Amino acid sequence: MSTSTANPTSSGPRSGPNLKSIVIWTAVAVVGAVCWAMLALSRGEDVSALWILFAALASYAIAYRFYSKFIADKVLKVDDTRATPAERLENGQDFDVTDRRVLFGHHFAAIAGAGPLVGPVLAAQMGYLPGTIWIIVGVIFAGAVQDMVVMFFSMRRDGKSLGQMVREEIGTVAGVAALIAVFAIMIIILAVLALVVVNALAESPWGVFSIGLTIPIALFMGFYLRYLRPGRVSEVTVIGVALLLLAIIGGGYVEEMGLADALTLSHETLVICLVVYGFVASILPVWMLLTPRDYLSTFMKVGVIVLLAVGLVLAAPALQNEAVTDFATNGEGPVFAGKLFPFVFITIACGALSGFHALIASGTTPKMVAKESQVRMIGYGGMLMESFVAISALIAASVIDQGIYFSMNASLGATGGTPETAAAFVNGLGFSITPADLEAAAASVEESIISRTGGAPTLAFGMSLIFTEAFGGGLAAFWYHFAIMFEALFILTAVDAGTRVGRFMLQDTIGNVWKRYADTSWRPAAWSASALVVLAWGYMLWIGVGDPLGGINQLFPLFGIANQLLAAIALTLATTLLIKHGKLKWAWVPGIPLVWDLIVTMTASWQKVFSDNPAIGYFAQASAAREARDAGELYGVAKTPADVDQIIYNSTQSGILQAAFALLVIVIVAGAAVTVVKAIRAGGLPTTEVPKVESKIVAPSDFFATKEEKEAVREWEASQKTPVS
Amino acid sequence: MSLLTERVSDRFSGAWRLLRQATGEAKWDEYVARCERDGVEPMSRRAFERHRADEKEHNPQARCC
After folding, report:
1. What is the tens place of the pLDDT at every residue in A543-559?
2. Cβ–Cβ below 8 Å for B25 and A193
3. Can you give the pLDDT at residue A9?
4. Cross-strand pairs, A48
5. Residues 320-359, chain A: which have Cβ within 8 Å of B?
6. Which of A148, A320, A511, A649 could make an SS bond with A379 (beta carbons 3.0 to 4.6 A apart)?
7. pLDDT tens, position by position, A464-498
8. In a domain, B19, yes or no
């Protein structure tokens, strides 16, 4: 590992690789190769999920050890003698030198959410292999590279945001396009995430009871920290988690408490609850609800991921789906329409490459990095961890009986909503299941399991299988609701925080023309901006739940493409900056994932806009429905003429949004192409990089400090304690 | 104390310190230490945490998907 610190005595001449490390890395490579071979070659018999798990871990280890080090040393040339913004501008607030392991935790908590859990679950309809390959290969060559490179460039610019960097380094037009794209994409993401929660909680009194209780629990924690025992975060988190577990257990008794009817809410009621909640949460002081909820959510996030990893190893379940299903090639899958290329890449989204991460990797995290070399562990390492979450989710979805999987994930229009009709539909797909099987599965988790779309219920079902197998005890219903709680908590935190960030962005933008509006403590501005943001995602959410074709089926592709388009913006910026810095020969590092991502997103956008297959093309769907209406008929799964009108309206709107996103990205890429040509001709261009200032602090670069690093840190700390004057 | 227990307690206090940094509780420890060094009377914990909450109020951090 790199030992270059500010202390010159610690960086001696490097000897070649020693025998021990050669042996270790050869062993890791062999393990990885064997696991991949097993996945590639076994067909027809039971394939253990552990092959996927260990193929992933071995690949991550090798990529981290070699590729990320190459990027740090050769491509970015991280320089530990250069002071980071945290060191130069330290103010104890946003600029703050932070222990690398703590910052890794913060960064991971900020990037990981429901996305890597939901996407792979939906993608499992094409089999386990396409998802596995893309999650692993994608993260190594695209997702982790994007996070690390964007973090590095933002760090070299005092933590500028993605939008700011695009404006200053590519051009004003591109900057404006990026700003609009970021805002619009955020609204779509919030709407889709909220839709996942609504679908998981609708008609589920247990879920509503447990999730509903998180609000008073968070309020209690907030007041505890404000008035009773200020600042005791660990203590209140322990209390909060205990209350959370009680809320999950208590949910099992809603029937006995006589609350079942009152808490059985329809999709529409839940949308209204969420919108009201989102508005209130974003105008309340953060200490009341947002901060304590974030503590709970972070704790659950880390806890459940560890639990899931342990559970998978103990249970060692066999995969139930095929390596590659027919839906991959015929594009007629009931979960989402379209063929493997490009839709598997769109659907998996966050676990392999997530544009949204670029918003976190620029701005917040780079202002806290102690040493430049740490972007490798925090940026690249953090994203590998997220990918691992996605792999776990893919496995959880793949160990479920395929009849159950498709009953849960096909839209209500397709399954008809009863065990008999659902079984008939699934049998029609070529999987055998009886209504009694479906009823037994539903009874095991004490929830209806037909057309519980959105990914969250499927993941919860898979996790309950794994945990029951691993830890025993017939607690399937508890584990199911535990998993739902864990996902809903993530999502509600993302909705709270996202609404707030959206509100600040909106106030800032309007503030350019009306100065006073930018004042975030001015109530009329704060309230109206919050209301606008909430109404924007609330509107999309409303459209989603009312969609006769199934909101997830319609909105998830929009979400996936939007997220991948944001990644295209981030990778464009990264490639342009490398070339401006005169590093044309390394431009392929972000350049190859950029080209791939553009091919995927533009193909998907093209198909979604121009395909004449109504199952894929939004406008084709609208016109097919219009023809049916004009002929006085119903269309597809529509049951009333109003449904047909709804389909026409929704599809047209989605098509317009889809086209608009793609156009915004094309504007940015075209702007970047001009800059790149200029930069290549001139052999590089000046950038807004902050000039070097010599670093005075000493800190290790990787997860585990080397002996030399520890020694250097010790010497430095000792020198700090003796006052110079 | 034997060498072993010393090492274990070192590890433990190291982990505890990291945890306090992760929850932000260490900010208070650092502040008190700084006040001591500068010979200033520190403000109350309550006032300090309020001050921190006000900062958070104006620096929202996005949570990803």
Report:
1. 999 888 888 888 898 99
2. no
3. 41
4. A318
5. 349-350, 354, 356-357, 359
6. A148
7. 999 999 998 889 999 999 999 989 998 998 998 89
8. yes
Q: Which tens digit of pLDDT belongs to each residue from A332-384? A: 999 998 999 999 999 998 899 999 999 999 988 999 999 999 999 999 999 99
Total domains in chain B come to 1
- B52, two tokens: 């921190």
A window 466-495, beta carbon within 8 A of B: 490, 493-494
What interface predicted TM-score (ipTM) does this complex get?
Answer: 0.93
- Does the beta-carbon distance from B24 to A286 stay under 8 Å? no
Mean pLDDT of A288-304: 92
Q: Across the interface, which of B45, B58, B63 has its CB nearest the CB of A230?
A: B45
Asked whether residue A725 is domain-assigned, the answer is no
How high is the pLDDT of residue A722? 64
Counting beta carbons within 10 angstroms of the beta carbon of residue A265, is it exposed (0 to 12), middle (13 to 18) or buried (19 or more)? buried
Terminal Cα-to-Cα distance of chain B (whole angstroms): 49
Q: Based on the structure, what is the number of domains in chain A?
A: 1
Q: What distance, in Å, lies between the first and last C-alpha atoms of chain A?
A: 36
Give, in order, the Cα–Cα distances in Å from A32 to each of A38, A673, B50.
10, 39, 51
Q: Which domain holds residue A26?
A: 8-203+265-682
> At how many degrees (to 10) do helices A172-201 and A551-580 cross?
150
The predicted structure's pLDDT at residue A12: 45
Q: Tell me the two tokens of residue A403.
A: 């009849």
Task: Tell me whether residue A558 is in a domain.
Answer: yes
Region for residue A454 given its phi and psi (left: phi exceeds 0; alpha: psi -120 to 50; beta: otherwise): left
Q: Does residue B29 sit within a domain? A: yes
Domain residues for the domain of B19 are: 11-58
The reply to whether residue A357 touches residue B49, judged by beta carbons under 8 angstroms, is no
Sign (positive or negative) of CA dihedral A407, A410, A412, A416: negative
Residue A333, CA distances (Å) to A122, A190, A430, A638 in order: 10, 25, 12, 19
Least Cα distance to A393 among A475, A455, A480, A474 occurs for A455
Write a three-state SS string for A186-210: HHHHHHHHHHHHHHHHCCCHHHHHH
Residues of chain B found within 8 Å of residue A566, distances taken between Cβ atoms: none
Provide DSSP, A81-95.
TBPPHHHHS--SSSS
Find where tokens 């089926």 sit: A553
**CATH number, domain with residue A437:** 1.20.1740.10
Helices (H), A472-611: 476-511, 523-545, 551-580, 588-610
Which of A4-13, A24-33, A66-75, A389-398 has the weakest average pLDDT? Answer: A4-13
B39 and chain A in contact, CB less than 8 A: no
Residue A90 resides in a domain: yes
What average pLDDT does chain A have? 93
The CA-atom distances, in angstroms, between A180 and each of A314, A528, A670 are 47, 19, 16
Residue A193: closest C-alpha in chain B: B65
Domain-embedded: residue A521: yes
**A231 vs chain B: nearest CA distance in angstroms?**
6
**Tens-place pLDDT, residues A8-32:** 444 445 566 789 999 999 999 999 9
Q: Is the pLDDT of residue A6 over 70?
A: no
> Are B63 and A498 a contacting pair at CB < 8 A?
yes
pLDDT confidence of residue A7: 43
* Closest Cβ opposite residue B60 in set A92, A186, A501: A501
Angle at A572 between CA A571 and CA A575, to 5 degrees: 85
**pLDDT tens digits for range A192-240:** 999 999 999 999 999 999 999 999 999 999 999 999 999 999 999 999 9
Can you give the three-state secondary structure of A133-156, one letter per residue?
A: HHHHHHHHHHHHHHHHHHHHHHHC
Nearest to B22 among A102, A226, A294 (CB): A102
Tell whether B54 is covered by a domain: yes
Do the chains contact at A230 and B46, CB–CB below 8 Å?
yes
